[in-house]
Design goal:
mainly alpha, 3-stranded mixed beta sheet, two-stranded antiparallel sheet, 5 strands
Length: 287
């Protein structure tokens, strides 16, 4: 469709302008609507903006995800023995993990097989990882306002094994192995929303100290702090398990003892200098 011709007639026409026809289109028409004082953008900038707008209109939001789904299928061989199974995933999603990116690159140009072994991992943890890669979450999801997690019918009502904690601990260690830091943080946030028994907490502590690096304080320190605050009560509910844990992992016993002694030292300092602490609290209230 061609642009309409607009005839502009001045109140005081001259010989040069009287009856002249002016064609207006696109940016020019918009400028006329906005008034004569509107600042004119450089032509190159205007063209670039129009091209960018056209690109955004031409590319639907789902296009990137569709590209993931168009990528080749990779088989993940999970577990060992009778529990071993194969899970399938799209290569483009897997390669967001540095671990899987390196494994896929090892396939070569014309691979006869696209299979990656994960024989030391549990299928539930790998399933949680895949669910996260496709959806950005994994079950059970966090409820709004940190009220806890969705009900998981697969978990026992009374936890003696620590399985609800271990589920997310396994996701945490798998995410660390695969280099997905956001998934590590998500798993850690879910761990803090779970209430367990003394025996369940010991099982969780044993897994953490057996499967994480000594310098991974993001998960080890909360475990040690938990037992430094509650061991005088909880160890009677699981005294034998607590003793075995300390003997099996001396670092656990040392970490717990260090926090207990630090707390006592801090408490002794407060008792020895009550006036200093009192004045500090007073200043805090006034400030």
């Amino acid at each position: 469709m061609s642009e309409p011709e607009v005839q502009i007639i001045d109140d005081g026409p001259t010989e040069e302008t009287a009856g002249a026809d002016v064609e207006m289109s696109g940016a020019a028409a918009a400028e006329a609507d906005n008034g004569d004082g509107a600042e004119e953008k450089p032509e190159d900038e205007t063209v670039a903006e129009e091209e960018e707008e056209e690109k955004e209109e031409d590319t639907p939001p789902s296009q990137v995800f569709i590209d993931y789904l168009k990528s080749p299928i990779v088989e993940l061989l999970v577990g060992e023995g009778d529990q071993q199974t194969i899970l399938n995933s799209h290569q483009a999603l897997l390669t967001k993990s540095p671990y899987f990116k390196e494994a896929v690159e090892a396939f070569g140009e014309n691979p006869t097989s696209r299979r990656i072994p994960l024989t030391s991992e549990q299928i539930d943890a790998v399933g949680c990882f895949l669910q996260y890669m496709y959806t950005g979450e994994y079950f059970p999801r966090r409820l709004s306002s940190d009220k806890g997690l969705e009900h998981d019918p697969t978990q026992p009502q009374h936890d003696e094994s620590g399985e609800p904690l271990l589920k997310h601990a396994r996701v945490y260690t798998l995410a660390h192995k695969l280099g997905i830091s956001e998934l590590k943080s998500l798993a850690m946030s879910k761990i803090h929303l779970i209430h367990s028994t003394a025996k369940g907490e010991i099982a969780y502590a044993r897994y953490v100290y057996a499967n994480t690096a000594p310098d991974d304080i993001s998960i080890r320190k909360p475990v040690a702090r938990f037992w430094s605050l509650r061991s005088h009560v909880l160890r009677h509910e699981a005294e034998e398990e607590f003793r075995k844990m300390c003997l099996e992992f001396p670092q656990f016993g040392f970490d717990v003892l260090s926090l207990v002694l630090d707390a006592r030292e801090k408490g002794k300092g407060e008792r020895d200098h009550p006036e200093k602490l009192g004045s500090a609290r007073k200043r805090a209230r006034q400030g």
